[in-house]
Amino acid sequence: MLLVPCPHCGPMNAGDLTYNGESHRRPDPKTCTPKEWRTYLYLRENPSGWLLENWYCSSGCRKHFKIERHTLTGELRAPVLPGRKPGATQGDMK
Amino acid sequence: MAKHRRVDYRPNRHRTSQAQVDVAIDESSGLLIRRHGLELDIGLGPRRAKPVKEPWDELKGGRVDKTQTQTTTGTNTKLFRRPGNPLRRDQKLSCVRQKSCAVGSQRHSPRGALKERKTEVGFELPDLLTECRLGDVKAVGGPSEVQFLGHGDEGVEAPQVRQVTHLQIISILLNSLLHPHERIGQTESMGKNKPPAKYSAVGLLWRGLRKQSWPRVWREPEFKNTYDVVIIGGGVHGLATAYYLASNHGITNVAVIDKQYLGSGGSGRNTAIVRSNYLTPEGVAFYDRSLDLYHSMSNDLNLNVMFSERGHLTLAHTDSALRTMNWRAEVNKLQGINSSVITPAEIKKLAPSLDVSADTRYPILGALYHPPGGTIRHDAVVWGYARSADAYGIDLHQKTEVLDILVEGGSGPKGKGPGGKVTGVRTSKGDIHAPTVVNCTAGWASQLSNMTGVTLPITTHPLQAAVTEPVKTFLPTVVVSGSLHVYVSQTDRGELVFGASVDPVATYNMGGTLEFTEELAGHVLELMPGISKMRLLRQWAGLCDMTPDYSPVMGPTPVDGFFVDVGWGTYGFKAGPVSGEQMAACVANGATPELIKPFELSRFTEGTLVGEKGAAAVGH
Ligand SMILES: Cc1cc2nc3c(=O)[nH]c(=O)nc-3n(C[C@H](O)[C@H](O)[C@H](O)COP(=O)(O)OP(=O)(O)OC[C@H]3O[C@@H](n4cnc5c(N)ncnc54)[C@H](O)[C@@H]3O)c2cc1C
Ligand SMILES: [Zn+2]
C-alpha cells in the first residue's frame, strides 16, 4: 500500500487521494498553438525512475500538491520546486 | 469485510425454483450442457431442504474430474469450424469468414439481426475429444464437415455441421499415423526454411510410450550485427509482426529482441479474453479482423491455441451503462458483428450462477451479449508465433536488453528526435545495425520511444489478475461488469480467472496488492454470491501501456525507420494477430494500411482521438 504524505493531513493511503499524473508546465491557452496544447494534454515522459507528480487530497483537505515518486520502487521524496527550499514540504499547485 | 457480510445475510438470494430451471433448459436445448451450472446455483440456495454438496468439495487438492469437465463445459465440447475447406497458408489473407464479405450487404439486409455463426460439432466421445483437440481436427480431418449455404448477399448464413462420428475420429488418427511427417495446414509455398515440426496425437503417444523428451522448439541464435528489421519486445505483438513479415512479405532477416523470455510481458500474463464488440467503427473493424485471424490460427501455426468461443457478457448496472450497451450493439450490428442487448432473464439462462435479482446493491439491468467472444490460451499464441517465425529463419534473442536506439540527424539532443533516422540498436550483447526498428514493448514502450526522442501519449499502469482453485465448470461465458470493475471467466481446467481495471497510480512495479484482492472478492460476490467459499490460488500483475483514448498507437513516428505498435493497455492480446499482420504490411510497404490509419501517433497532435473508453476500460 502506498502512503503518500499530504502536506496538510500527513501520510494518506494513496487510495484516498486522487492521482493526477505527471506534473507539467501548462502552456498559456491564450497564446499557445493547438499542437502545443495537445502535447500538454496527451504526451507523457512516463519514465521508470523519479517522477514529479500532481496529487489531490480528495478525501482530506482538498489541496493539490506535488511530490516526487520513484515509479519502480515506490519511494517518495519531497520535490525541489523553483522558489522553494529543497526538502521543504510542498505547497499547493499553481 | 462489510461487503462480504452484506451479501451473506441478504434474504431471497435464490429465487429460481427447480421447475423454472427445467423450463429454461427445455426451452433452450443448447443449454442442456450447462445444466450442471444450474444445479450448482440451486444447490447453494439457503432454503433448499436437502443441501447439495458443493462441487469443489469433491475436488480438494486441485484434482479436476476430467469427464465432468468435458461434459459440462459447453465450450470444451464445441469445436468451431470455418466455412469451406481447411485454410491453406496462402489463403490466409483472403476473406475467410463469410461475414466480413457480407458486411456491405448486411447493412441493407431485411433480416437485420445476425444469425449466430458459430456451429457446434457434437462429439459423442468425450475421451477421444482430448486427442482430437491435440491433433487438431480442423486441420487433419480432410474435407471439411462444414458446408455453407447461400451467398454473402443474403446476409450472414449459419454454416451446417455434420456430427463427427467415431469413424471419422478413427480416420483422423489413422491419417496422422500414415502421414506423420505431413505438415498440418501448411502448403509448400510457406517459406524457404525448414517447416516447424509437426505436432500430432500420434506423435504425442509415440513420444509418451518411448518416454522421449521433446526437442527445443526454437533455436538459440548466434548474435548477429546486422538485420533488416529489429523488433523490440517478444510478446504476441512483436512475434506476430515478425511472423507476418516473413510469411506475407518474405522479409526474414529479422531479429526479435526481448530483455527476458518470450511472453514475459503482458502476453504471458493476460486473462486471454478475445472479442470484437468495441464502440467505434474503427475499433470494431480492427478487432474483428483479429478474431478472423485467431479463428484460423491453430491451422496456420499448427499449434492448438484452444480458442473457446464461449460468448462474452458485459453487464449493465445503471441506466447509463445500458444506454452505452445499446449504442455498442448498434455500432456492432452495423459492422456485421454478432452483438445484442439481452435482459436479466436471458442472462440468468446463459450464466445461471449470476445473481440477477432486483434487490442487489447493483442490480443487473441487462447485458451486451457477444457470442463470438471467448478465450484463447495465451502461451500457445506466443509459442505458435515464435515457433513459426523461427522456422522462417527469424532470430529470437531472449535475455537481450535494448539499452539505446541509435538515431542520426534528428532535431533533438544527440541527433535524436523528429526528423532523425534510425541506424540500429544498442543491446546488452552488443550493437546491431538495422534501418528499421519496431517498438512492441507494451508497458515499457515509453522508455524505448524516449530513446529515439519520440514522446508517446502513454502512461504505464499495472493490471492485476487472480485465479482460484479449480472446480467443476459452471460458468459457461465470460462475464464483465464495468460498474463493479471486475470480470470473470472459467478456464478449461475449472479455475475462475478474475481481472479488474488498471491500478490508478502509474508504476513499473509488478507487485500485487491486498487492496486488489479485497475489492475483487467483494465485487465478485456481488455478482455470484454462490462462490463465497472458493479459495484464491494466486494473483499477479502485468504492465499496461494506457493511452488517453483507450486505443493503440500504431505505425510510423517522426523518426524515420522507427515504428511503434504500442498503447495496448488492457486489450492487446486479442489484437495480437491483426496488429502483427498490419504492422508487417506497414513496415514492408512503407505506407500505413487503412485498418490502422486511425491509430497513428499523429492523431494526438491533430486531435483526432478514437475514444474506446466506454468499451475497453474494464472489459478487456
Ligand atoms: C493482468 C492482465 C490481463 C489482461 N487481460 C487481457 C485480456 O483479457 N484480453 C486482451 O486482449 N488483453 C489483455 N491484457 C493486455 C495484453 O496482455 C497486452 O496488451 C498484450 O499482451 C501486449 O502484448 P505485447 O506483445 O505488445 O507486449 P508484452 O507481451 O508486454 O511484451 C513486451 C515485451 O517487451 C520486452 N521489453 C521491454 N523492455 C525491453 C527492452 N528494453 N529491451 C528488450 N525487450 C524489452 C519485455 O520483456 C516484454 O516481453 C491483459 C494484461 C494484463 C497485464
Ligand atoms: Zn490533505
What is the CATH C level class of the domain at 229-269 and 378-458 and 549-616 in chain B, in words?
Alpha Beta
Span between termini of chain B: 28 Å
The low-confidence parts of chain A are 87-94
Mean pLDDT of chain A: 86
Q: What is the CATH topology assignment of the domain at 229-269 and 378-458 and 549-616 in chain B? A: FAD/NAD(P)-binding domain
Secondary structure tally: strands of chain B: 21
Individual helix count of chain A: 1
Could you state the oligomeric state of the chains shown? heterodimer
Structural class of chain A: mainly beta
Number of alpha- plus pi-helical segments of chain B: 19
Mean pLDDT of chain B: 75
**Can you say what the CATH homologous superfamily of chain A is?**
Folate-binding superfamily
CATH class of chain A: Alpha Beta
As a percent range, the share of helical residues of chain A equals under 10%
| Structural category of chain B | alpha+beta
What does this structure look like?
The complex is a heterodimer of chains A (94) and B (620). In chain A, the strands form 2 sheets. In chain A, strands 3-4-5-6 form a 4-stranded antiparallel β-sheet, with no helix packed on it. Mean pLDDT of chain A is 86; it is low at 87-94. In chain A, strand 5 and strand 6 (76-77) form a beta hairpin. Chain A is built from 1 helix and 6 strands. Chain A has one helix at 34-42, and strands at residues 3-6, 10-13, 18-22, 50-56, 64-70, 76-77. Chain A has 94 residues and is mostly beta strands. Chain B is an alpha+beta fold and 620 residues long. Among the domains of chain B are: 229-269 and 378-458 and 549-616, FAD/NAD(P)-binding domain (3-Layer(bba) Sandwich); 309-372 and 460-546, 2-Layer Sandwich (D-Amino Acid Oxidase, Chain A, domain 2). Chain B has 19 helices and 21 strands. In chain B, the strands form 5 sheets. Chain B has an 8-stranded mixed β-sheet. A 6-stranded mixed β-sheet of chain B has the order 10-4-3-14-21-20. The model of chain B is unreliable at 1-18, 20-164 and 180-192 (pLDDT under 50). Zinc ion is lined by residues 6, 8-9, 57, 60-61, 63 of chain A.
